[in-house]
């Protein structure tokens, strides 16, 4: 079988593009151990490369929807939670603290435990819906956009920005200070337009 071809048992090998896309995102240690196999990149066929790149971009798209969905339907469910101290504490620790102290530099990035709790079922779902080599590309694309989201979210709160990001900063801060029931997009307003939650600024 040619290197990079899709084998019948859908296993990922060091000769498929998704192997090289997944490793830098999932484990820098694994990336370091894969350097001796980088010469194999030249032997991967064009179809495999095309599929890996398309899967990566699909993962980018998937992340934009997850960003909106998690922000709107998970992090802003406080009105639906029982009025019990345990539920209030969980909500406060996951997202409420960010609204309470939106300019606190230490409370912008998702806590690792929460990241694991949210990413684990999402990655399992990707493996259920797609062959392994595609799932790895999709997961890599989504994780790459998650890292960009974290960087942009931090920048929206704490840095001088180019024009587009200034507009998104104004939009995001309006979500914090004007109406937290609208404006769930952080990196883009696209899903706010699609789902009718655009926040007029």
Describe the structure.
This protein has 201 residues and is mainly α. It contains 8 helices and no strands. It has helices at 17-26, 28-34, 46-74, 85-100, 112-129, 132-158, 163-177, 190-195. The longest helix is centred in the first third of the chain and has 29 residues, at 46-74. It is globular. The protein starts with 16 loop residues before the first helix and ends in a 6-residue tail after the last helix.
The secondary-structure class comes to: mainly alpha
Poorly predicted ranges: 1-14, 18-24, 29-34
Percentage of residues in DSSP E strands: under 5%
Q: Give the fraction of residues assigned to helices.
A: 55-70%
- The string of secondary-structure elements, in order, is HHHHHHHH
What value does the average pLDDT take?
Answer: 78
Integer-rounded radius of gyration: 19 Å
**Cα separation of the termini:** 57 Å
- Please describe the biggest sheet, giving its number of strands, its sense, and whether it closes into a barrel: none
The total count of helices amounts to 8
Tertiary shape: globular
* Secondary structure: number of strands: 0
